Every structure is written in structure tokens, then in C-alpha cells.
Batch of 2 targets.
Target 1
Amino acid sequence: IRRAGAAEHIAGYSHRAETLEVARGLGFADSLSTNPVECVKDADLVVLATPVGAFGELAEKIAPHLKKGAILSDVGSVKGAVIRDVGPFVPDGVHFIPAHPIAGTEQSGPSAGFAELFDGRWCILTPVPATSDAAVEKLKAFWQALGSQVEVMDARRHDLVLAITSHVPHLIAYNIVGTADDLETVTEGEVIKFSAGGFRDFTRIAASDPTMWRDVFLNNKEAVLEILGRFSEDLFHLQRAIRWSDGDTLFDLFTRTRAIRRSIIDAGQDTPAPNFGRGEKKDK
Ligand SMILES: NC(=O)C1=CN([C@@H]2O[C@H](COP(=O)(O)OP(=O)(O)OC[C@H]3O[C@@H](n4cnc5c(N)ncnc54)[C@H](O)[C@@H]3O)[C@@H](O)[C@H]2O)C=CC1
Ligand SMILES: O=C(O)C(=O)Cc1ccc(O)cc1
């Protein structure tokens, strides 16, 4: 926001004073407070950025203090649940526009943020049908100023698309690393010692914040279970191909998936894990 000059004043809130200390050290905001009400009063734009499961409680606290004409938004990884939990608290005259920047890393806390995070990444807005077009355009311009490309989508569609592209892949990573950890007692260190590319990539994803991801799965149940059902069927199909030495089935799938990877690269959506030379960061 600061790089883009997109706000006259940036006010930051956290419920933990230690987090504000880190944010202060990084020069993130013009004012910082552990009081959410103080933080939102007079704001033109309020962006909720806690784990999804905390949005409702936070919205209830700040809602009566929002300025008329303000935009209330968020960055949650799930959208239907945000509309369900925050929507009922939004006062008349406040524009509620849920949003999801598809950008981030496995790191969390203020020190995981960096100015280039949103460059070239998509940000999905999921306004409900009655939302003012002008307010949607304003929020769109905000995210574009931050470097994002913006798409407007129905919340239900968002949750299904993200279940396949982000939520289930995270669950698979958590699961494979958990399975390997269970094996570890048998193999005494070999999993770590010989961990090759594939497993290492999964461990990065599986290092993501436990609270954030617990809340994603608890709040996108329907879509995640739908995708998991299909995933399990396809996995059984592969298991069967291996058992019966059906090389054609394996080869055909691997050829198809290689083409998908190439199309992602061609679309410019394969920026490397965005550390930009800062090296690995320790979690908060
Ligand atoms: N990490 C990522 O790559 C991405 C995360 N998101 C979404 O953004 C949101 C924030 O994620 P991050 O910035 O990664 O997390 P974070 O862990 O860096 O920040 C979340 C903050 O919320 C605070 N918090 C937790 N419970 C709270 C409560 N009950 N009341 C007030 N504050 C509370 C935590 O102390 C922490 O400071 C989540 O909803 C997540 O789904 C969206 C896109 C990418
Ligand atoms: O670290 C990664 O690879 C991510 O996938 C980051 C991420 C996490 C959650 C989101 O809702 C969007 C992006």
C-alpha cells in the first residue's frame, strides 16, 4: 500500500502487542493499535486479515464504528463463509466486498510481508449481487495499484476453484509429510536425510500456519469434500494402473500434467516462491 501511495494513512491492528512491535520495527503503518475500534474509525477501507474463523467476532466488534460509505473487505482464503459470518454485521451504508489475493508464502506474521507480494498475482473479488458497482470499481483499482490483476467471481465458484488449486493441495502436503513422519520412527532419520525434490516441496507447503489452514478446511467443507472425493477416485485409478503394470495409463496422465505445467509457465503464473533473495525466514 505504501509503495503504491494507495492510502493517506495506514492504520494497523493486532490483538497481540508483540506483533505490533514487529510491525512498528518494519515501518508498516502510520498508526498501530491493539484496539480494533480505534483502528477502523474514519477509515475509507477496512481489510480483515486474521484467520477466517476470527472474522465474525472481529466484524461484530468493529461494525458499529465503520464510517458511512466505507468499504469493508478481507483477504480470507475462503469466501462463502466470510459472507455468512461477516455479512450480518455490516451496517447500512457500508460496502462489504470480500476479496482474496492469491498470493502468499508458507511464512506468516508481519515480517513475511514484502512490497512485491501482489505483483502480477490475481486478486478475486466476490461481491454479493446488491453491491454498488462504484464501490467494486474502487476496490478493484486499489488492488491494481498494489500490482494485482483483478477478477470478480461468485463466492461459491471461488470456493470450488480454490479447493482444487490451493486447499486440497495443502491437505495433500500435510498428509504426505504426516505419513513420512509416522514412517520416520521405522526408518530412523532416512526420510529427512534422503528427502528429494518432491518431498522437500511438500514440506514447504506443510510448514504453513496451522491456525490459518485449520480455519480454511473448517470453512470450505463442502467444496473440499467434493474435490477430495474425486481425488480419491483418481488415486485409486492410478493405484490400479501400477498394480496391473498399466504403463500407458501412467504415461498418458504424466504427459497431460506436464502440458498443464507448461501452460502455467506460459501464462506467467509461475513466479518462484516469493522470497526474492531474502532467504528463508523464521516463523513468528
Ligand atoms: N498466508 C498466505 O499465503 C495467504 C493468506 N490468506 C488469508 O489471509 C488471512 C491472514 O493470513 P496471514 O496473513 O498469512 O496470517 P498471519 O498469521 O500472518 O496473520 C494473522 C494475524 O491474525 C491474528 N489473529 C488470530 N486470531 C485472531 C483473533 N481472534 N482476533 C484478532 N487477531 C487474530 C494473528 O495473531 C496474526 O497476527 C487468512 O484469512 C488467510 O486465509 C490469503 C492469501 C494468502
Ligand atoms: O505458499 C504457497 O504456495 C501458497 O499457496 C500461498 C497461498 C496460501 C493461501 C492462499 O489463500 C493463497 C496463497
Target 2
Amino acid sequence: MAVLEAKDAADWTYRGEGAANIVLAYTGSSPRFVGKVLRIEKVLKNGTINDDGPSALTRHERLLWNGNLILAPTKKIAELLYVQHVMSPLLGPDHIDAGNLIPVSREFLESVKSKVLCQRPSWRVDAAKPNVLCDSALLISDHSIFPSGALKEENCISVEIKPKCGFLPFSRFIADENAIKSCTSRFRMHQALKLHQGQISEISKYEPLDMFSGSRDGVYKAIKSLFLTPQNNFRVFLNGSLKFGGLGGGTESTTCLTSEAFEDVLKSVILADDGTRTEFFLQLVAEAIFKSGLLDRLLDVQKLDLYDIEGAIHAYYDVVSQPCMVCRELGEDQMSGRYSLLHLFPLDESLKIVRNHLIAATAKDLSVMISFRPRENGDLESPYNVVFLESTNQTFDYKVSFIDLDIKPLKKMEYYYELDNQIVKLCTQMVRLKHQPENGASIEESS
Ligand SMILES: O=P(O)(O)O[C@@H]1[C@@H](OP(=O)(O)O)[C@H](OP(=O)(O)O)[C@H](O)[C@H](OP(=O)(O)O)[C@H]1OP(=O)(O)O
Ligand SMILES: Nc1ncnc2c1ncn2[C@@H]1O[C@H](COP(=O)(O)OP(=O)(O)OP(=O)(O)O)[C@@H](O)[C@H]1O
Ligand SMILES: [Zn+2]
């Protein structure tokens, strides 16, 4: 297979990035790449890529994941197989493109690296850079457009949503002092910590419990809030170009200026008067999400996290055959204390608990892309779903895809436990302060 060379970099433009990857869109004319994006791995500026020897997975990860995954010769192949064999059956293969690994040269990556530098958010540049030592990158369908083949030019508007965790944890292993977790969503609590640490300047209005409520009104409320405070949870693209939200990360709350500009963008898609298009568009997005039923499916996968990190962390220490650091810190006897039930499970059960926790973690962090294109009266049968926007009397084809289904490393379990602790401690403290008359804290119960 032809390797991408330095000269090929001219045909790829910056589409966006997350913590772990940079994504490029194809602008050339090679049929091999038209309608595709290229996902390039990043490496931390002051760190190295996790490489545990010839096999992609660590010894303990090989216990956790079975089948083809454990035979994968590289981390990238293991990730691809994870999407194909673990996430895709759970979420529905019709909505997922695991992609293909294609060879890339160092010169191509160097060229891309300098080309995209000025478009990347500075905090992302400070944190990580494209890994120019990679010999492959992932070629995936560009979900922000419809596959070409259309006879006429048509506008495709697509929305990217990172919905985060949509339920309140129900594990009996949640400590009494952490009871706030059973009435406030993780997203809202994490917002408080992010604000406290200066990672955001304002609390998001978004509530994942509305998005996953299974009610039309709940979904609409969630979409409306995402529009007002998009952070890194909401973006809109028109024919693949970002028109709303943060390129490569989060963004500030919506201002009059940004909403006016967006109203203008919608001109080519929503047939309505100035001042009403955004409202109608948000109705369209909410209706498609509600109708697709896809969030119900996503929620089921998120709920594989039956034990919460407060339970799963004990199973983790058994999986990695180490004394439980949490029991030690809490002064609990591993074999007779509060968490002994978990430590007495056979290894198979501990593996299942941790495996499900990590799968749920992927499902809590992925994004959904919903793309729309207007249908005209004379259009023939469509292979896509159809949604009707009553307010404008328009019909749209729509398709929904999941992106960013990355496998989470086993060693992240300890980090998850610490982060959870940090979030819950801060929020519990804030609620306590709130009950003191002179203070007004911003954490609110979700239900
Ligand atoms: O821990 P969370 O909930 O903050 O999620 C992380 C995300 O933060 P955010 O959605 O902004 O809160 C975070 O997103 P950002 O970098 O903040 O855009 C990543 O998605 C991270 O995953 P990974 O380390 O790249 O595998 C995510 O880490 P995981 O928890 O999914 O491993
Ligand atoms: N298949 C795709 N089609 C269209 N756009 C995509 C696709 N995959 C990714 N993108 C765009 O690129 C951005 C970054 O991709 P992605 O979320 O996979 O990065 P990441 O580093 O793995 O994210 P995270 O921070 O969650 O680890 C996305 O937010 C989205 O805008
Ligand atoms: Zn323990």
C-alpha cells in the first residue's frame, strides 16, 4: 500500500483534536481518500507513548481482553480490534466505522505537524504534539458529510455531541459520605472541579441526565443548554467546516455575536426567517436524537459500570495481583472488611467487573455525530433515516455515528479513583458550605 509522503500533506487539513489524537480532513481528489478523515496519534510533550514491549497490551490487559485483541502486534491494531469486536457489537455496527490503518512516512507527519500548528489551540499545543515516529494513522469515514455520489451540490450540516455519563450511579459500594453521587450527575460535579481549577470560566448549563432522559422535552432542553454553553460537548459543521463550537477543544459560552453568526450560517439549510433558524435547528437536532433511540443504547453500555469506581477499584487490585491500596488507605481488612466481598470474587468475576468498567468509560467519553441534509420533494427513496421539521415544513435525511471509541488503559483505574475522590470531596464540601447562610455555592442536585 502506498505510503503517505511529505507532498501528500498538502491534501490534508486540520479538522480537530482531542486529548489523544489530531484529526485531518481530506481535500484532494484521490478516490482512496475522498470522504475520509485521518486520525493521527499524539505524544505528550514531556512524556513518551506507552509502549509495553512487543505486544500492544500489558500482561494484565491481555487477561482482560480476549479473542483477537490479545494477539494484536501493536497498540494501534489492538485499538482497532477493540472498536470492531467490543464497542461495535454493543453500540451497533451501522453507526461505527472502525477505520483502517494506513502507512504514513515521518516526512508526512513532520509536514502535517508544522502545517496544523497555527490552527491548534495553544493549550493543546503545550500538552502534546503529533507523534512523528508513528508508521501508521487511522483512515475513517468523515462523519460530518454524506458519502458523495449525489447528482447535485447539497448542504450537509452536522452536529457533534459529547454527551458524557447519563445516569446516577447505583452501586452499593459507594461510601455514605459520597452520597452526593446518587443525586448529582458526574458531569455537573466535574464542572465544579473544573471551575475550581480554572479549566473552565463558567459552569455548563448542560445536564446529561436530561439528554438521556428518554423524553423529547429532556433531549430538547439538553440541546438548548449545549448551544448556550458548548464547552467541548457541542460543535456544528457545515460541509465539514466548523461553524459553531471550539476547534480542537472547548469554547466559551455563546454570546449575542456568536449566535447571530450562527443564525446566518443556517440560512443555507433552514428555510425560515432571520431570528428563528437557530431555534428550529435545535428542534431538528433534538427530534433526530430522540427518534434514533441511539442514546438509549449508549446508556445501556454506560450502565455496564455496575459497581462504580468505588467498587471496581478493588477488583482492579485483584486483577493486577497487588494488595488493595484503597482498603489499605481506608483501614479495611481486605479479607474481612467492607470490601471483602469484592476481594473474595474469583479472578474471572474481577476481570468482568474491570472490563465492564473500562467499556463503560469508553461509552461515557465518546462523541456522537448527527448529520442532516435537506430532502427535496422529488427525491427518490433514501437509504438514510428521515426526520420532519414541522416548524419549517422541511424533511431531512439524517445519519448518526459514534466517534472516539478508544480503549482505556487498565492503569487508568487508579487515576479514575483519585479523580472521583477529588470531585466528590469538593462537591460535598460545597454543599456543606451552601447550607451555611452566608454562602452560595453553585452545585445543584440533578434530580
Ligand atoms: O475523565 P473525564 O470525564 O474528564 O474525561 C476525559 C475527557 O475530559 P472531559 O470530557 O473534558 O471531562 C478528555 O477530553 P478533553 O481532553 O478534556 O477534551 C479526554 O476525552 C479523556 O480521554 P483520553 O484520556 O483521551 O482517553 C477523558 O478521560 P476518560 O475519563 O474518558 O478516560
Ligand atoms: N470520523 C470522523 N468524522 C468527522 N470528524 C471527526 C471524526 N473523528 C474525529 N473527528 C473530529 O476530530 C475531533 C477529535 O477526534 P477524537 O475525538 O477522536 O480525538 P481524541 O483525541 O481521541 O479525543 P479525546 O479527547 O476524547 O481522547 C472530534 O472532536 C471531531 O470533531
Ligand atoms: Zn480493596
